[in-house]
């Protein structure tokens, strides 16, 4: 990878940023820059010497306007929990950290509409909404660190997508700053508004390559009165599918999550993180686990549906055992087993992570195919878990440290395999830096051509998050 | 699918710590777990046994005692064929709570449900509830009675096997009666 045609940051540039933001919101100390240069799983590392922390849309606008004229490349960063290296500089791009834009602007309880700045932490928004009987339409393991603007920019899926749909539906409006500093105010708060182009979509899932999201309007469903969780042990993936099928039929409108984990995935939480498996009736555990959550408005009804579902599943021999609860502390404990897998697996060493969509027929086969292909004693685990209800599996391959030859056995093989099965090589994490060269495996050439057109239109100098999503186009520095 | 002729749902209730989970694990796995966390929610599992050459599948629901004033209650009682109400023979308060449990059972369970009172931990030296006191209580409330030790595997197998046999007989009787009625 070659550095793009950008200027390097000068003392004049630093002086400009200093006068704009003041010394507290400008970081140039290399040690302090370090955490912004490295991604959450420590798989990529940039060399930025400049981190900016704007507090307002006006400041973001001023920064971009300046960088665009000066041809300085930037990388927007929110919680830095992204898993495809999208939020870190590749070379010396300026990091624009959104952390200081964390104000909640408006909460419309009746309409269920929240307006806030892009730098609010997902969990803080969740806690805020709880006080008015609402909830966020998305939830994910990184909620304590990821920011809503980061989620919007990656079109994050997560644990509630099955029930509430994705952010293209739930984000009603955005405010974003274009590469040249122009502010696009698309802060629509209406549920229905078919007037002209729906520009918000350009900023949802475009990973900071078309603009910087500064504010968002979110459609928030009412907080369910009753939440139940069933954690199940199963003997085969075939039974996992049968259970999912049954859950859809029996739990229908109250089903809010349907997650699966294989044995090696849950081993991460149990062995690497010392958590307890709540299922004890099989000494050696189970081959598969499922987590089924319901959210509804009537405790007794929901409970009855869920226990009758469990009874049927047991009577049909599709589950081996399980546990059922509606106590918040216990629900959180069980969710922890699932949510902490991606953190816990890092203790193995280096982790190759693939976030793919596959049709149900090949959903788990990909893990088996990899196990077959990589019979390498250095490999600690090849496992799969994920959002079964959304056809989305996370495959992780862990080894003590990075080995080039193992990487070569995995890639591009896995992407080709997924592409062959009509799957998506990135279901919810995005393309970022790591998957750029595989974009064509899930997008047609006509789509990619139009993506370039849009990129040129929105960011002619290519200063916004270069090397991400699309391969760089401009190679020469124009003056 | 494995074939079986009978399928019954058995639910264990009683105060936390009386040994419900140990009884279930002794029966389903043949072991006495060395220290384990309290039951998280309602645990459910399957155990197939054989009674008079017939396969009987028992669906066992082990509840978390500390939750008894909480909400998960109705649905798992409702479709139960047998309810095992457990107390600890070395702990008077667990016996004193039995009327509360019975009230809950009356309210939620079907009135045809088979009810068994179990005094557990008879291996312990510090007994507080004499056998006849438990027996009396059971008799007064129309329940079967058994004393067990999950630790020493006393009467545990017997407890579940007798339940299976009894339920089998009841359901065959019903079958028989309904055939008679058809005549
Ligand atoms: C434990 C864990 C669990 C996860 N679970 C899920 C999951 O279930 N589903 C899921 O989809 N993802 C999941 N992720 C991935 C990640 O959390 C999401 O992609 C999240 O949305 C990223 O948010 P962030 O604030 O950390 O953004 P960052 O990682 O900082 O940024 C992500 C991308 O968006 C760009 N960006 C950030 N902010 C802006 C902005 N304001 N304007 C324009 N561009 C911006 C960045 O340049 C980068 O390309 C998980 C990650 C972890 C660590
Ligand atoms: N001595 C003795 N202790 C027992 C027996 N059964 C259970 N225990 C102990 O009682 C405690 C609670 O047991 P547990 O099965 O978790 O109770 P539950 O809350 O009713 O499920 C544990 O410390 C067990 O070791 C028994 O038969 N004898
Ligand atoms: Mg217990």
How would you characterize the overall build of this protein?
Chain B: It catalyses: GTP + H2O = GDP + phosphate + H(+). Chain B: It is a lipid-anchor. Chain B: Keywords: Cytoplasm, Cytoplasmic vesicle, Golgi apparatus, GTP-binding, Hydrolase, Lipoprotein, Lysosome, Magnesium, Membrane, Metal-binding, Methylation, Nucleotide-binding, Prenylation. The complex is a heterodimer of chains A (479) and B (183). Chain A is α+β, with helices and mostly antiparallel strands and 479 residues long. Chain A folds into four domains: 11-98, Uridine Diphospho-n-acetylenolpyruvylglucosamine Reductase, domain 2, CATH 3.30.43; 104-219, Uridine Diphospho-n-acetylenolpyruvylglucosamine Reductase, domain 3 (2-Layer Sandwich), CATH 3.30.465; 226-341, Alpha-Beta Plaits, CATH 3.30.70; 349-441, Alpha-Beta Plaits (2-Layer Sandwich), CATH 3.30.70. Chain A has 17 helices and 16 strands. Chain A has helices spanning 11-21, 30-37, 57-70, 122-130, 148-154, 161-164, 167-170, 200-203, 237-251, 263-272, 299-315, 328-339, 341-344, 365-373, 404-410, 413-420, 445-458, and strands spanning 26-27, 51-52, 74-77, 94-97, 104-108, 113-117, 171-177, 183-186, 212-219, 226-234, 255-262, 288-296, 321-325, 350-357, 381-387, 392-399. In chain A, strands 13-10-12-11-15-16-14 form a seven-stranded antiparallel β-sheet, sandwiched between helices. The longest helix of chain A has 17 residues, at 299-315. Chain B has a single domain (6-182), classed as Rossmann fold, CATH 3.40.50.300. Chain B has helices at 20-29, 74-78, 92-96, 98-108, 131-140, 156-182; strands spanning 6-14, 42-51, 54-62, 82-88, 114-120, 144-147. A six-stranded mixed β-sheet of chain B has the order 2-3-1-4-5-6, with helices on both faces. In chain B, strand 5 (114-120), helix 5 (131-140) and strand 6 form a beta-alpha-beta unit. Chain B starts with 5 loop residues before the first strand and ends with a helix. Bound molecules: flavin-adenine dinucleotide, guanosine-5'-diphosphate and magnesium ion. Magnesium ion is lined by residues 20-21, 38-39, 62, 64 of chain B.
